[in-house]
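Q: How do we represent a protein-ligand complex in a form that can be generated token by token?
A: Start from the inputs.
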Amino acid sequence: MTDMSAMDKQEATPVVGIVMGSDSDWEVMRHAVTVLEDFSVPYEAQVVSAHRMPDEMFAYADSASDRGLRAIIAGAGGAAHLPGMLAAKTIVPVLGVPVPSKYLRGVDSLHSIVQMPKGVPVATFAIGEAGAANAALFAVAMLAGQSPDLTSRLSAFRQAQRARARAMSLPPA
Ligand code: RP5
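Then emit the structure tokens for the protein with 5-O-phosphono-beta-D-ribofuranose bound:
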């Protein structure tokens, strides 16, 4: 079993890839980065645009499994084909994050990602930062099956969240 928290973040081989169609997606996708850092999960993050750099996108997907990636979190906005195209080229699970778009506010991104035809799944999350954070939490849950340390950290995270909700009183302070 892999104890990911014990790995040196700088040197550990990434097990989660975070990709996005543009640096303009960073403000949303950085919430996935924050979660993985909080759980000490080795990750890599980079821009991989499906329509601006399709050759690199294919190479990324082709090499993902051999490089040790166990999940790919892919965020894109508009006609958001990045998650689906990655999923078409790798059996590494792809977690899609719809990034809010200028005119349609990310509903276009959501529909583009979630409506995959049967046979090539993309696990699709909420539009925006909640989706980015939840995709990372989902990746942590996937990895926790092989890591007792991650399992206990994830349980502690849920417990802390529950405690905060139970401590809430109305009206809010
Ligand atoms: C998509 O187009 C990106 O994922 C981004 O959400 C959107 C706009 O990209 P920029 O024009 O801001 O680079 O490919």
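Residues 5-10 have pLDDT under 50 and may be disordered. Strands lie at 16-20, 43-47, 71-77, 94-99, 123-124.
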